[in-house]
Amino acid sequence: MNTAFGIIILAAGKGTRMKSSKAKVLHTLAGRPLIDHVIATAGLLVDEKHVVVVVGHQADQVKEVAGCRFSGRFAFQKEQKGTGHAVQCALPELPAACHDVVILSGDVPLIRKTTIEKLIADHKRQGNDVTILGVCLQNPHGYGRLVQNQSGDVEKIVEEADATESEKRIQNVNAGIYCVNTLFLEESLAAAMPDNNQNEIYLTDIVAIARRSQKKIGLNICENPGEVMGVNTLQDLLNLESMLNS
Ligand code: UD1
Ligand code: CA
User: Which domain holds residue 147?
Assistant: First the structure.
């Protein structure tokens, strides 16, 4: 158990693209709600007292599903103003001892403990302010693209909705999982603005902010794309279910 780390799990979104009345993280994969998969993995990495789950849409139902075996904390995001805003809502709930924080997505259910352990180890060893988990996808549609310079350093993350045609051709994408220095996370989110095509405060903006303020950015490429597949649509969920059964 590593007490210097906290974990924030983002689970407040509506999941509009699911076209379902049920909050996305309540949909089941292998018979268990998506949020349950992610909380279980978080519990393998740190003491649950260092885990904060951000709830918002159908908060009571999500808390009920998550809460039966979960001894961590919940943060409430009243309005879903974006992933960066969700993290801002979680930060006050994070124990002060958490020098660094791993951010997980409630809609990326198959992420493995060992992948996060490697992310944390590299973050520490390299002395990074932010370490991004990325993946190379044949079809990157829908994911934030990693804009890298010639040396491979990540300069920014561009969301599909804001990407130029050439950025859309980038196949290295953001898995939505990061390890970040807590102080830097707080400072950079305070500087993040909803000046994008979705009018949201993007968590991904902390990368460009890190770049501007000469912070150290690391990238870990996950070799197993299945593990970091996000669930945005019912079809995504069916695809994961059939992947598990194959
Ligand atoms: C996000 C990333 C994208 C990445 C992808 C990986 C941002 C801006 N984009 O996009 O770069 O490639 O994940 O899967 O972060 N949520 C909240 N509150 C909000 C909005 C979202 O808690 O206000 C939660 C959702 O419940 C979900 C997670 O955050 O669990 C991700 O949100 P989602 O809208 O699915 O982000 P993506 O568009 O997939
Ligand atoms: Ca998603």
Answer: 5-245
Find, among 142, 98, 158, the residue nearest to 239 by Cα.
142
Cut 0.70: pTM above it: yes
Question: Of the residues 58, 83, 233, 240, which should be mutated to test ligand 1's pocket, given the most ligand atoms within 8 Å of the CB?
Answer: 83
For the CA of 12, the nearest atom of ligand 1 = 22
Taking 80 as the threshold, does the pLDDT of residue 117 lie above it? yes
Give the CATH number for residue 128.
3.90.550.10
Burial 129-141 (b: 16+ CB within 10 A, else e): bbbbbbbebeebe
What residues does 135 pair with on adjacent strands?
173
Domain count for the chain: 1
Two tokens, residue 216: 């150290």
Is any atom of ligand 1 closer than 6 Å to the C-beta of 144? yes
| Residue 68 confidence (pLDDT) above 90 | no
Q: What is the rounded distance in angstroms from the CA atom of residue 157 to the CA atom of residue 183?
A: 20
Q: Which ligand number lies closest to the CA of residue 104?
A: 1
